[in-house]
Design brief:
With about 550 residues, this protein is of the alpha+beta class. The chain has a domain of about 350 residues: Na+/H+ antiporter like fold (Up-down Bundle), CATH 1.20.1530. The chain is about 55% helix and about 10% strand. The strands form 2 sheets. A 5-stranded antiparallel β-sheet has the order 3-2-4-1-5. Strands 6-9-7-8 form a 4-stranded antiparallel β-sheet, with helices on one face. The longest helix is centred in the first third of the chain and has 59 residues.
């Protein structure tokens, strides 16, 4: 059995793959177990890694560092690609508020760490490590270690205190989410902002009763009207048609309009009267509304369409069809002429069957071609992200430059490529399943390596009096700021529970807690909110870790 011992315990590339795979497989399996209705999911990989490190399993340190770094980069870059298309619209609406709330979490936690360092007589380097562990922020720990080295101070205390507080830093955010959901969340908080999303389309029918728009063309009305809208169908004297921009409206015309819910009242004033029928139910058979027109979903699969504006294709005038909505990354977008199309967009097209068939040839609609991910663009984006993350940023008053690091750079580039890549005709599309696979593999590798590294001295440190104190203080630094800012977010700022969870996870730089939030919340609000807060939060954590050492040591 000597060969088995060598395979499992001698430091080779094969042994590293086997150990990390075992930790991941066992952790994911155990993470599916529900206790009191709660399961930790992929986060359990971290605790499996701690146990493996405690019983003596280890891998080559260089391979451990590589796998941990690569896993983190994969996760944050794939997350950036996912939320990129809707990131900037979200930021324009509530991103400033989210970032201010995230900064509130950071300021409260930092103030607690400084006060506790003096009142509990804990050395500042150790407390900085506790702060980094409580906020699960290894880049901040690296920045603190660099500052300590420049001042000639030892770094072992910060490293060890970070390691022993890190597990409860992970669990503390998840526990805070559970407590917040139990005691602070009202039914309206679970999705109250979902309909207010500026990208969320809303369908309504109007009767033309306003004399001010009689005999005016749709194009002229669109220019004089502030709300954006698309008229999908028009009924006149019992006959349905696809209205073109030069079509004039007459009294008693009936219009099927796609807009946003917040603009319905303004359009009611514009057109004259809104009908009471609800057109936003999922079970509506659009092809049964009338016999002349059909509605069909067409997926953009031709690369040459990627990055073009919808209006530049002139599909309405050339084929007599109308595009009412565009589904992108789970978000319904209003099909305005200025909308920049992306590979993988699903267009809702209304028109006659023959015309829609011709439009299919223009747009592609060959979904099978999208199943192959564009691996080249993924790795190019990762390279750019790592380069951005390594750029030194000079902050006045700090002797060493600050870097966004392995996490900050890739997520920023992922967001930018996901949002603006099509404008430069970059093929950045990945299927949702491929994106989830990248994120899952990356997060599992990261957690397995973190746990394996922390498990070596974890239990012996925790059993010492100062170790137990570190763990307790770290949990308070994790838990209390979240418990303070969550009610402020949901009550004063009227954020929904999903966006609040994403904000809390992003401000704590905690992808494991984000994964838990994604499991219990059906929409993408946590991921979008997380990506909105994460870059600034990561940057501030790295700066603060160095400022604490420079200013207070």
């Amino acid at each position: 059995m000597e060969w088995l011992y060598e395979t499992l315990f001698e430091h080779t590339a094969l042994q590293a793959v086997i150990i990390l795979s075992l930790i991941t497989a066992i952790g994911i399996t155990l993470g599916k177990i529900h206790i009191c209705g709660i399961s930790l999911g992929v986060t359990f990989v971290f605790f499996t890694g701690i146990f493996a490190g405690h019983i003596g399993l280890s891998i080559d340190p260089q391979m451990l560092s590589y796998a941990e770094s690569f896993g983190l980069v994969l996760f944050v870059y794939a997350l950036g690609l996912q939320v990129g298309p809707g990131f900037f619209s979200s930021f324009r609406k509530e991103g400033y508020v989210l970032n201010l709330l995230g900064l509130g979490v950071i300021v409260i936690g930092t103030a607690m760490a400084i006060v506790l360092s003096y009142t509990m007589d804990i050395p500042l380097p150790d407390m900085t490590g506790i702060l980094c562990g409580a906020t699960t922020n290894t880049p901040a720990l690296g920045a603190a270690q660099q500052a300590l080295k420049q001042l000639g101070e030892p770094t072992s205390g910060a490293t060890l205190s970070c390691a022993v507080t890190y597990p409860l830093g992970v669990v503390g955010v998840i526990f805070a989410i559970i407590v917040i959901k139990k005691f602070f969340v009202r039914p309206a908080d679970t999705g109250q902002n979902e309909r207010d999303d500026p990208n969320q389309t809303y369908i309504a029918t109007f009767q033309v009763r306003n004399p001010a728009i009689f005999n005016k063309s749709i194009q002229d009305i669109a220019k004089m009207s502030y709300p954006k809208f698309v008229i999908s169908r028009m009924w006149r004297n019992g006959k349905v048609s696809i209205p073109t921009y030069d079509k004039t409206l007459q009294e008693n015309d009936r219009l099927l309009v796609i807009t946003t819910e917040k603009d319905v009242l303004a359009l009611t004033v514009l057109f004259g009267e809104q009908e009471k029928r609800d057109w936003n139910k999922e079970d509506i058979d659009w092809n049964a509304i009338d016999s002349q027109l059909i509605s069909k979903h067409i997926v953009i699969t031709r690369p040459e369409i990627n990055g073009k504006k919808l209006g530049s294709l002139r599909l309405r005038n050339m084929y007599g069809i109308n595009i009412s909505r565009v589904l992108r990354s789970g978000v319904q977008l209003l099909a305005t002429p200025g909308l920049i199309l992306q590979l993988g967009d699903r267009l809702t097209v209304v028109g006659e069957a023959a015309a829609i068939h011709n439009v299919e040839k223009v747009l592609g609609n060959a979904a099978k071609t999208l199943k192959d991910p564009n691996l080249a663009s993924i790795f190019i984006g990762i390279v750019l992200g790592l380069i951005i993350g390594s750029i030194p940023i000079i902050i006045p008053g700090i002797s060493s430059p600050v870097r966004l690091g392995l996490a900050g750079g890739p997520i920023i580039v992922g967001i930018l490529i996901g949002a603006y890549g099509p404008r430069f005709h970059l093929l950045t599309y990945t299927t949702r399943s491929a994106n989830l696979m990248l994120r899952g593999i990356g997060l599992s590798l990261y957690l397995a390596c973190l746990g394996l590294d922390a498990g070596v001295h974890f239990f012996e440190t925790v059993m010492r009096p100062e170790g137990a104190l570190w763990v307790g203080l770290g949990f308070l630094i994790t838990f209390i700021p979240l418990l303070i800012m969550a009610p402020i977010s949901m009550r004063l700022c009227r954020m929904d529970f999903g966006s609040t969870c994403g904000m809390l996870c992003g401000s704590m730089a905690n992808p494991m807690a984000l994964n838990y939030a994604n499991d219990i919340i059906p929409n993408d609000n946590p991921a979008v909110s997380y990506a909105t807060v994460y870059p600034l939060g990561m940057f501030m954590r790295v700066i603060i870790a160095q400022l604490i050492i420079v200013l207070f040591l």
